[in-house]
Design goal:
With about 650 residues, this protein is an alpha/beta fold. It has a domain of about 130 residues: ANL, C-terminal domain (GMP Synthetase, Chain A, domain 3, 2-Layer Sandwich). Helix content is about 35%, strand content about 25%. It has an eight-stranded mixed beta sheet, with helices on both faces. α6 packs across α7 and α11 crosses α12. The longest helix is centred in the first third of the chain and has 17 residues. The two termini are about 15 Å apart. Bound molecules: 5'-O-[(S)-ethoxy(hydroxy)phosphoryl]adenosine. The site of 5'-O-[(S)-ethoxy(hydroxy)phosphoryl]adenosine has 22 residues, from α12, β20, β24 and β25.
């Protein structure tokens, strides 16, 4: 880690926007950074949305509880759809391509009709204002339609990433007490069909709150019969059948600004994911504002954010932000290397994508696959690139700049979190000279600071990243767990939001993100709690104890290494065929949580090094897993080894 920080400190390259980009940018005057009256500033953004009733108070702040645009009434789907009908009715809102190559386009008018119909379907299934609806879907247009339909009737969606296991889905449905689950027969991934309905059944059967399961038929070609799903009478219904009957006339429910728009589960420092709660007015305002200024959205842009709707990026920057801004959003269902490793570049060429927003882990994979692949495509439609999800290493940044941006396109490295709802630290592409690896400056109106343990600001240097004043799209809580909300984010320094990230600031005031400082690992841009993986491991009958750490990984950034103590009754078996045993444990974690949590390495040990107070010495474990403490990790089977390493580390620290 310290080597990486040193390397970042030596990063002095700087890339100012071109005069042309600056001239045309939505934010092109440095004065946007002078926000004297924060509330008036955010109110001026909110005024650009449609409100059925205007707010009477911009902000009520009883730390850590915020209410924005109090007294206002609006509807998120009306802001994403209805308000564009007069001026953009025939403009494509959504251009979608499935992994097999099937393409569907929806104009704003068409998307509005589909959403209105599905909103009526949800109503007919008994969904009402304030109810929760779970969505477990591949990245197909119906997923976007389902989200907006929930918003239209004031129901909160809880989207669960389609790569999560049945158990993970079940836990999230149970926690939110969702009434309806929307899923699909399957989704395409690397040419295979992921059997979502089957996985959804395993979850829904254990969820008494679920009254109906709505199933979208995902079939790329008419001759490809998908007869593998079973439909439970009275509970399960086909999406296409319900839609056939539904009226396209659905008045939006005008909800309070603070009405919950959605909950989205994310990993934290305990074994149980938390349901982050976002509400309507403030969230939409900031998702919209950041789209306008960070992505510099213009009327003729074709914008592609590669995130899945299962993550917050898919909420704010596939659905709510860009549609509120009236953009043309491109969505692709499948894998970047299917059928070949140039799929993304061919999609950019084919659909003339102008703004491309992806994750560093993807960029590192592209680097590995070679620049010849993008080089063979016409990427001249691109004008702006973005990065999100984890720190981008300067090498990947330079590659992105050179081979994708062709040294013309600004790169916006955007830092934010599920909890923040919108981008918080980012360059404004027409104003800020970027430096490879730095997320640069706080978005105007955002008070981001580096604090030390005692809460003192560090002007130049490293510490914890904190947000010191409330912002419109901030989380309003953790679903049904106010104590955890308060202790997790607000206990370190009262009234100040603790991000869980370490960062430093350089002499120019630029932020450099250094990764998590808590027990959360960022694997390929996805948050996984070490405790979640540990509980999944000890759930296996052969495992007595487990400790999980993040280790460096060429593509994923961080990967999971798990140390396990095997129960004595199973120790012989683990020794006899270690490869088989390791695979069994890895499969177990995948089945419990999902493939994203699958450990890269399993290390069987007889002891776990703990401090005198019983805390696992994770730094030592990382050093062992990355081969620094021990040349040959297999010697961990010798009980004296861990003990002597522990003594050595305790002496050092
Ligand atoms: C990390 C994703 C460095 C960070 C939007 C944060 C980043 C966590 C960046 C949130 C970035 C996100 N540079 N680190 N540009 N963007 N992170 O909730 O550790 O899935 O706390 O939200 O990702 O992950 P989440």
């Amino acid at each position: 880690m310290s080597n990486e920080i040193d390397a970042l400190l030596q990063e002095h390259r700087s890339f100012p926007p071109s005069d042309e980009f600056r001239r045309n940018a939505n934010a092109n005057d440095e004065s946007v950074y002078d926000v004297a009256d924060r509330e008036a500033y955010w109110a001026s953004w909110a005024e650009q949305l449609d409100w059925q009733t205007k707010w009477h108070t911009v902000l009520e702040w009883n730390a850590p509880y915020a209410k924005w645009f109090v007294g206002g009434k609006l509807n998120a789907s009306a802001n994403c759809l209805d308000r564009h009908l007069a001026t953009r009715g025939d403009k494509p809102a959504l251009i979608w391509e499935g992994e097999p190559g099937d393409v569907r386009t929806f104009t704003y008018r068409e998307l509005h009709a589909q959403v209105s119909k599905f909103a009526n379907v949800l109503k007919s299934l008994g969904v009402r204002l304030g109810d929760r609806v779970a969505i477990y879907m591949p990245l197909v247009p119906e997923a976007v339609i389902a989200m907006l339909a929930c918003a239209r009737i004031g129901a909160a969606h809880s989207v669960v990433f389609g790569g999560f296991s049945s158990e993970a889905l079940r836990d999230r449905i149970q926690d939110a007490e969702a009434k309806v689950l929307i899923t699909a027969t399957a989704g395409y991934r690397r040419g295979n069909l992921v059997p979502l309905k089957k996985l959804a059944d395993a979850a829904a059967d254990d969820c008494p709150s679920i009254e109906h399961v709505v199933v979208v038929m995902r079939r790329a070609a008419a001759d490809e019969l998908d007869d593998t799903v079973s439909m439970k009478p009275d509970r399960d219904c086909w999406y296409h059948e319900l839609m056939r009957e539904a009226s396209a006339d659905c008045e939006p429910e005008w909800v309070d600004s603070e009405q919950m728009l959605y909950t989205l589960y994310t990993s934290g420092t305990t074994g149980k994911p938390k349901g982050i709660v976002h509400t309507t007015g403030g969230y939409l305002t900031e998702a919209y504002a950041t789209c306008k200024w960070v992505f510099d959205l213009k009327e003729d842009d074709v914008y592609w954010c590669t995130a899945d709707i299962g993550w917050v990026t898919g909420h704010s920057y596939v659905v709510y932000g860009p549609l509120a801004a009236g953009a043309t959003v491109f969505v692709y269902e499948g894998a970047p290397d299917w059928p070949k490793q140039d799929r993304f570049w061919s999609l950019i060429e084919k659909h003339k994508i102008s703004i491309f927003y992806t994750a560093p882990t993807a960029i590192r994979a592209f680097m590995k696959w070679g620049h010849e692949l993008p080089e063979a495509h016409d990427l001249s439609s691109l004008r702006l690139l973005g990065s999100v999800g984890e720190p981008i290493n300067p090498e990947a940044w330079m590659w992105y700049h050179k081979w994708i941006g062709r040294e013309r396109c600004p790169i916006v490295d955007t830092w934010w979190q599920t909890e923040t709802g919108s981008i918080m630290i980012t360059p404004l592409p027409g104003l800020v000279a970027t430096k490879p690896g730095s997320a640069t400056r706080a978005f105007p109106g955002i008070d981001a600071k580096i604090l030390d343990e005692g809460g003192n600001e560090v002007k130049v240097g490293g510490g914890y990243l904190a947000i010191t004043t409330p912002w419109p799209s901030m989380l309003r809580g953790i679903w049904r767990d106010p104590e955890r909300f308060e202790s997790q984010y607000w206990a370190k320094w009262p009234g100040i939001y603790f991000t869980g990230d370490g960062a430093k600031r350089d002499e120019d005031g630029y932020f450099w993100l250094l990764g998590r400082v808590d027990d959360v690992i960022n694997v390929a841009g996805h948050r996984i709690g070490t405790m979640e993986v540990e509980s999944a491991l000890v759930d296996h009958q052969a495992v007595a104890e487990a400790a999980v750490v993040g280790i460096n990984h060429e593509i994923k950034g961080t990967a999971i290494a798990a140390f396990v103590i095997v129960k004595s009754s199973r120790a012989e078996e683990a020794k006899r065929d270690p490869a088989k045993f390791e695979k069994e444990l890895k499969d177990h974690v995948s089945a419990k949580i999902g493939a994203i949590a699958r450990p890269e390495k399993i290390l069987v040990t007889v002891d776990l090094p703990k401090t005198r107070s019983g805390k696992i010495m994770r730094r030592l474990l990382r050093d062992i897993a990355e081969g620094r403490a021990l040349g040959d990790v297999t010697t961990l089977a010798d009980p004296t080894v861990v003990a002597s390493l522990k003594d050595k580390y305790e002496e050092e620290s």
